[in-house]
Design a protein that fits this description.
Blueprint: H1 9-28, E1 36-44, E2 50-59, E3 62-68, E4 79-82, E5 87-90, E6 92-97, H2 136-141, E7 145-150, E8 163-166, H3 172-175, E9 176-178, E10 182-186, H4 202-232, H5 249-258, E11 263-267, H6 271-283, E12 288-291, H7 300-306, E13 310-312, H8 327-337, E14 342-344, H9 355-363, H10 369-374, H11 378-383, E15 401-404, E16 415-420, E17 423-424, H12 430-439
Helix pairs in contact: 4-5
Length: 441
């Protein structure tokens, strides 16, 4: 079996169809049995404003209709839920987590986040380790998170490829909607190690990454040359069949990123790291989004000039000694002010439930409310290429819907019902069970 080295229309079309089919399959595999109608609630549609006294119809795993009361037909066989006084909004999306890769931080046998054998491991796939039965997934759902990007930890520079998941399904296969959807490139101080096998300086990291991409380019060229020679070879050639290059999974994994087919998630925390990492990405014409830029306040106009989305959070991080006390808190608002599309991430498995509170906290430091809400719904859906299915309350999209007592960004709000692909998902989890067990008289 050989890798596909050329970007041609038919191959790209097959790739897109496959990805779309995977998303559709994941959305419907665990679908509802009958129509469900949420009636009388306040709908935060994200794309077309707020609908007071609205009606939302979910059917066959999709949002079938949404609008003001009296404007939407209710199917005769529907389960009608009176939602007066409730706020209804799309399922929230966390743009980087370790869900399904770790269970107990103190127990190494439950931790699949980091591969210590090499810093350059682009051929690793999160889908090979994703644990769908994690107790942390129901805890994340409890606060309205229905989708997430699952990524390796940031200890390695090229740690493997992410998956985009839905937080409910019959199996891990159903929950993983898009496999190998992006790859982190981490360029922070965390990857500089004292181990002599690995770089301990920024220039060493850059050199190592550059060599990996150059090797991948040469590998792709070798395969391209082989294919051309094979196509031109005569059946009567006495030299015998051509010998194909040896497959190298590490280099093969980098090729879609070098060709711009997939997105690099470029992580850098400080200005000097950011500029070095961006220069490296541009050297190889990589398509990228920015990540972890918590301490780059001095170069935000430069960030805006890049015209790429930024993943932000957690915003509770302490400032550096030379920064204002609110530097990290204000970052989402400052990015938004410059027209940069942002999305929030928990960067955790244990803190995913706090995703909406990050967005809410940022509104106190200059992030407009509507942008904060978009940053955990539609913005990430657009960044990760799934906005046709997720991120807003629109007819035709997957019915990932939250019913809560109030504003999703308010810590006092309780989620009362959660629907994933139109199916109501129980809100019980390990923490609620422990609460009920030990609060009982």
């Amino acid at each position: 079996m050989k890798p596909a080295m050329k970007l041609d229309f038919s191959a790209l079309r097959r790739l897109l169809i496959t990805a779309g089919f995977a998303l559709c399959l994941g959305s419907l595999a665990w679908a509802q049995s009958k129509p469900v109608v949420l009636k009388g609630g306040r709908l935060l549609t994200i794309t077309h404003g707020v609908i007071e006294n609205g009606v939302l119809v979910m059917q066959e795993g999709k949002i079938a209709a949404v609008g003001a009361a009296g404007s939407v037909s209710i199917p005769k066989d529907a389960r009608v839920i009176e939602a007066k006084g409730m706020t209804i909004y799309p399922g929230l999306i966390d743009s980087e987590t370790n869900l399904g890769l770790i269970e107990i931080s103190a127990e190494s046998s439950t931790d699949d986040r980091v591969e210590p054998s090499d810093e350059i491991m682009p051929h690793m796939h999160v889908y090979d380790a994703f644990h769908a039965e994690s107790e942390l997934i129901p805890v994340a759902r409890f606060n309205g998170v229905t989708n997430a990007v699952v990524a390796p930890a940031t200890d390695d520079t090229l740690p493997g490829q992410d998956v985009f998941i839905q937080l409910d399904g019959k199996s891990a296969k159903d929950m993983m909607l898009v496999r190998d959807m992006a790859m982190p490139l981490n360029f922070t101080g965390q990857q500089r190690r004292s181990d002599p096998k690995y770089p301990s300086t920024r220039m060493g990291m850059a050199a190592q990454i550059r060599q990996a991409f150059l090797d991948a380019q040469h590998y792709a060229q070798d395969w391209d040359d082989y294919e051309k020679k094979k196509a031109a070879a005569s059946p009567d050639d006495k030299k015998g069949p051509l010998k194909a290059p040896k497959r190298d999974l590490k280099l093969e994994a980098l090729i879609p990123y070098l060709q711009g087919k997939k997105t690099i998630v470029l992580a850098a925390e400080e200005a000097s790291d950011l500029q070095a990492a961006v220069a490296l990405a541009r050297e190889f014409n990589l398509k990228f989004v920015l990540n972890h830029i918590s301490h780059t306040q001095g170069v935000l106009d430069y960030v805006a000039s890049l015209k790429v989305p930024v993943i932000v959070g957690p915003i509770y991080e302490a400032p550096k000694p030379a920064e204002r006390y609110d530097a990290v808190y204000r970052l989402p608002g400052e990015l938004s002010k410059r027209g940069i599309k942002i999305a929030f991430a928990s960067y955790s498995a244990h803190d995913v439930r706090n995703l909406p509170y990050q967005a809410g906290y940022a509104t106190a430091f200059g992030l407009p409310y509507d942008e904060a809400l978009r940053a955990i719904t539609l913005n990430p859906a657009e960044i990760w290429g799934v906005a046709d299915q997720l991120g807003s309350l629109d007819a035709g999209k997957t019915a990932n819907v939250v019913v809560a007592t109030g504003d999703p960004l308010d810590v006092k709000t309780d989620v009362k019902q959660l629907f994933i692909a139109g199916r109501e998902v129980p809100l019980t989890n390990r923490q609620t069970r422990l609460r009920d067990q030990y609060s009982a008289p």
